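ZP: hey, is the zinc ion complex queued? I don't see it on the tracker
AM: it wasn't, my bad. submitting now with these inputs:
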Amino acid sequence: MVIRRCQSCGHPSVTPLPVCPICLGDTFDAVHQDGNGTCLSWTRIRRPATDFKCAEPFIVAVARLQNGTLVTGRLAQAEAADTALEIGAPVVVTNQANEPPVIRRVRPL
Amino acid sequence: MREVCIAGTGSTTFGRHSAVTPQDLAARAARAAVLEAGIARSDIGAIYVGNFVSGVLTGQEVLAGLLADHIGLAGVPATKVEGACASGGIAFRHAVMAVASGLCEAALAVGTESMTHADTATVTAALNCAMDHRSDGAAGLTYPGLFGLVWRAHAERYGTSREEVAAVSVKNKRNGLRNPLASMGADLSLDDVAQSKPIADPLALYDCCGISDGAAAVLVTTTERAKEAEGLPIRVLAAAQSSGPARISGLDNLLSFPATVQAAQRAFAESGLSPTDIDLVELHDCFSIAEIVDSEDLGVVPRGEGGRWALDGRTAVDGEMPINASGGLLAKGHPVGATGIGQIYEVVQQLRGTHPNQVKEAGIGLTHNLGGTGISCTVSILGRPDV
Ligand SMILES: [Zn+2]
């Protein structure tokens, strides 16, 4: 996944913010990282807002990346029909410009 | 700063007010508060209106100016404040500051909202305006979804059970049956809650507050002037406000909202009180699990034990820490901008000893109003004058 890192203090952010909340720096680098983390929690959205109506129901999860950062994302569509996602289970997060992050399960071989 | 009292209160019922505009609801509540306070309108030097979604859902803005016009106070500075579901609490704090600072002798705080005319998906989208559209909102998260996430994390960390969470809904829905302002009271079993329609797993329908219309108002003034009021004046011991992380990625975990913790700390510091001094709490139970987390964040229940306390009856109206004796948002419904003032209204009636679901020997009460994904919060502490 791609995250932004403040050029002045190195603070990482998944959300593109205008100013670094730590040092008020306003220049950032795009940094690639592997997106490995664990599932912190998840929910199945059965009553979405108007913009998301076509997709119902879908799963929104929160992952904790290895650097401690929390990321809110959508569970990959193909996996959404599966049963429970376990808290603490390994996941991988990917993101693309102007798209919300996508979270996938890492399955044991 | 001068000491401030609540001299007048007013509230419409919370529920369905078909075809009544938010400014008309506000005028009804404000009229009652002004009349009860028994003070001349010329003494009112400021109006603050809490409202969250009137622009999106009704196409009407400038509610504060409209209210001033409707109650014959054109000319008085009238300000609408918005802080998502904490808009009402924020309006209250600003009215208190206006009087405490000496800028005016009396100020009116009103909260109002009209929502029931819109369908659920439209209301959900309107409420989602309080999410950061670049993060949580973009992923399709909703507010029931947020609290579904919180629930699972709380259950994982503290072993909170389905029964314990449902106990909050059962308690608040029953409390609501005794409150004529609440239209969503019900006598439910733990099973009724658990078996209701799933909304955002593990949240089900009866874990969620209802979409509602309504308005509430309080008139605040100096202790001196409050003596002329019809009802017992109630002292404002603290009116604290905070802001918090704008998105889930700003949280350390899903077990606590830092804005609540901070607002509570400020309110206790301001009043010189501690959680053990509080006789009753009206807190932001937008969802059953929210009451559990809020009660722990406020420090009125030990961390991790909110569910246990609800199931054991310790937060019932006759328990050691009565929470939401009014029925809360779960039974009153949640006309978002009105809720914070509605909570103040309920606590004032409790401290006067005139509440329809009265807490015994209520001397000091606390209200907690939380907005967005924990981005805004107010905590107020009110006291009977003889306590
Ligand atoms: Zn920085």
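AM: back. Chain B has two domains: 4-119+212-235, 131-210+237-383.
ZP: great, adding it to the tracker
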